[in-house]
Amino acid sequence: MPTLPATPVADPGSPALVAIPVRFAAVPRAAWDRLFLASPAATPFSAWTFHRAWWDAYGETAHDEVLVCVPADRATAPLADPDAIAGIVPLMHRHVAEPQDAATATALRRRHAAGSDLRPEAKAIFMGASYHADYATILAAPADLPAVAAALVAVLAGPPDPDHGGAAWDVVDLRRWKTGDPAADVVEAAFRAAAPIHGWEVRREQEDVCPVATLPAGGGWDDYLATLGKHARHEIRRKIRRAEAAGPVGFTLAPLDAASVERFIDLHQARWGADGLFPETEGGARSRRFLHRLTELEAAEGEAARFQLGLVHVGEQLIFASAGFSDGETCYFYNAGMDPAARDLSPGVTGAAAYLRDRMAAGCTRFDFLRGDEPYKYEWGAVDEPVDRILILRADA
Fold it and tell me: pTM above 0.85?
């Protein structure tokens, strides 16, 4: 990536923008938050807190290259006026596979990364934090998206950044585009328009799915269960009744503190062990750092916090813990842990049911199980929503 912006490409009716590479830490928080709110497809995975936590935990695994898009006359001092920043493109670059990856990746992350057809030694540009985010997008108001996309293409068409070895990128691998994200269509169109000039190949493909359950607005638990298949409804009710026979089933939001994180990690590891996110490896240590840092940052947000740690008890027994995000409309179920010793209480079903009921009571109308087509998600009535990937490859790469 270049250290200086390429010639800007103007969008008719919009001011010309240039994209300037900066470090994440240099981006004014006020600009990030303003553009997050202006971006129609932004999720908690695009929040400043998520990216700050990711760079703090995983910064050694990638080079930080965030682009800020500003009018051309602000190019020499792009961060001087946060209100002049019209777009933020959170990028990082690294080789598709780095020497330390095998030793530091957790088993779950290895499975999530499987299936890439890119050369391990290829220099790739990714959306920032997208290795651990389920959604990613560009931060910009819809009216500014064409100019932001044009500025992004202009930068990537320019010379490589000598600060990072001077090697040109081999592939731009923009993953995690949420279904319906207008930024994806605009970015794809901008790259396709430039492809014949630069000899690029542009692909758009479905990367994964996020199964999402629709919750009845203003409805009750029985209204929701009525939307499920007969067998799933019967099994859910049967397992919940069995748990309730052992004691009251309750869901509580845990304080966002270190003790709550460790409680979640303990239950996650009890369920997954070496195949989980927190084994006694460098990869597990990074996962711990990330979750602790995210929790710390979100706790500082006060009532604006989107991250949640949940606990489900049957009587006095803790059987299930959840980690997720909630924006008032959608609950994003990020991960869970459960007590294998509570097998007779069906902790997976009982815990998920308690979490769903709590989010329904809080007013959520969507429960997003996030990436992966695990069968249990469909028992809750979830329907696949595609997650796309835009690839740009050099013809001579």
Answer: yes
